Amino acid sequence: MPSPFPFLAATAIAAATVATAAPAAPAALTPEAADARCVVIFGFISRQPGQPADRMEAIKTGTAYYLGKLSGRHPGLNLTQTLGAAANRAQAEKVDVVKESQRCGRELTALAAATRPAGGAPAPAKR
Predict the structure, then answer these.
(1) Sequence-separated (6 or more) residues with CB below 8 Å from residue 118
(2) DSSP letter (8 states) at residue 25
(3) pTM of this prediction?
(4) How far is it, in rounded angstroms, from Cα 102 to Cα 108?
(5) Are 78 and 16 in contact (CB under 8 A)?
(6) For the segment 100-114, what is each residue's pLDDT rounded down to a tens digit?
(7) Average pLDDT score over residue span 68-92
(8) Alpha helices (H) in the chain, listed in sequence order
(9) Rounded to an integer, what distance in angstroms lies between the CA atom of residue 118 and that of residue 101?
């Protein structure tokens, strides 16, 4: 099954129709805030009408990845509160959905490339 990560770059195209006004210079995000923002951005994009199935699958995979990072970094973290704060901050800063989805997608694309077998290892033989 092909990796869904390359389709995350395509989320920028869908998000372009809903991008907000140019943001003011936001404060730097902590790693936790950056991961939470990715979850929020993917959630926003997933609620836009007409998303193709492959993009929705990539969004689900990306969301699970970032939720896992948050939970793994801070077991017992109140995800509802963390994601709510991330959504409020993104809205207050009028973040650019396209740029944020590209930032999140770059990390996922790099992860997919790093986990691909070197040299395109052959598939196991069928018995």
Answers:
(1) none
(2) -
(3) 0.72
(4) 10
(5) no
(6) 999 999 999 999 999
(7) 95
(8) 11-16, 31-46, 53-73, 79-92, 97-115
(9) 28
